[in-house]
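[SOLVED] Predicted holo structure with nicotinamide-adenine-dinucleotide

Edit: marking solved, answer below. Original request kept for reference. I posted the sequence and ligand SMILES and asked for the 3D complex as structure tokens.
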Amino acid sequence: MIAAGTGVVVTGGAGFIGSHLVDALLGVGCRVLVIDDFSSGERANLAHHAGNPGLTVAEADIRDEAAMLRLLKGQKLVFHLACRNVRLSLKRPTEVHEVNATGTLNLLKAAAANRVRRFLYTSSSEVNGTADVIPMPEDYHFKPETVYGASKLTGEYYTQVFQRAGWLETVIARPHNNYGPREHYFGHKGEVIPRFILWAMAGMPPIIFGDGLQTRDFTYVTETASFLVRLMASERAAGQTVNVCRGDEVSIRQIAEMVATLSGRDLAPQHVQGRPSDVLRLFGDNSRLKDILGDTPGISISEGLARTYNWFAANVEPTPEVLESMKPMNWAQAQAEEWLSAWEAG
Ligand SMILES: NC(=O)c1ccc[n+]([C@@H]2O[C@H](COP(=O)([O-])OP(=O)(O)OC[C@H]3O[C@@H](n4cnc5c(N)ncnc54)[C@H](O)[C@@H]3O)[C@@H](O)[C@H]2O)c1
């Protein structure tokens, strides 16, 4: 375990997974510095820690190299989670590259210069692209389908280089899809499970992109947070890349059915055109995680979905504004980069 009092940085700590990681770290008595630009993260995600002297929040952009060098001074451990999301990368790939790839390089440099004891890079299953080997091992033949996936893979490669060069001790954690309390639902940031839940709460059917046979390997978010902490603390994880997933493949159609059952309503899904660059199959091999830590995430999708449904029912209202923001293709409203607008115009 990480010793109480250790100085720990969490980039993206106001985000969905990051805020649960902060909960776990404060829970074991760490001194936590959150670095976040609040582009998708929310202060509300950390509001329950108000007044806790163990938490400091710095509003800063990881693209600001000088600020990262300054903020990491005296810190022992860095969990790097800050990133721009997959749907933004469909319209603004340069911004996504600059934050996810160059921002990661900035942090690695700042961590090395400050002699941080260990750096954990949070990658993503999206580096793999659609699975054609099942389950997907860590040393998969990467074929990312988006600039998001490619930028997360670039971050992995930079992290590996810092490890090989001896500049830093690193761990690469590669979570698969997460879900649970505080997951994004609004606008283009909205993810599938909260959207299905909020539609069900409003008595509306789930809208599925394509046939709904796409699969994901879902992990309940508090489990991911605790496995990230354990990987950071594990001697055996040094220099490793590790999938963090349940190893359980579930289709989007199955999720829609389970959410409808939880709502107690008869909600037949509506199908609309598939999202461009949607990865069709993701299903991870978690045997390395089991080998290193002795176990793997254990909360089943039915248990996790019930918890998530209850959290949303208690905390989020499906107001007309929320429902309007969840319209299909909402990601297409982001202003495309100039070259992409020109390409789209033919
Ligand atoms: N959510 C998932 O299902 C999932 C799956 C696999 C991997 N991941 C990875 O986990 C990490 C966290 O994802 P999440 O779902 O919590 O996303 P999120 O959008 O909720 O969190 C990202 C955080 O980073 C912050 N951020 C973005 N750009 C920044 C910048 N330039 N400087 C400082 N802060 C910045 C955002 O404000 C936000 O708080 C990411 O690295 C992501 O690639 C997530």
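OP edit: The chain has a mean pLDDT of 96. Thanks to everyone who chimed in.
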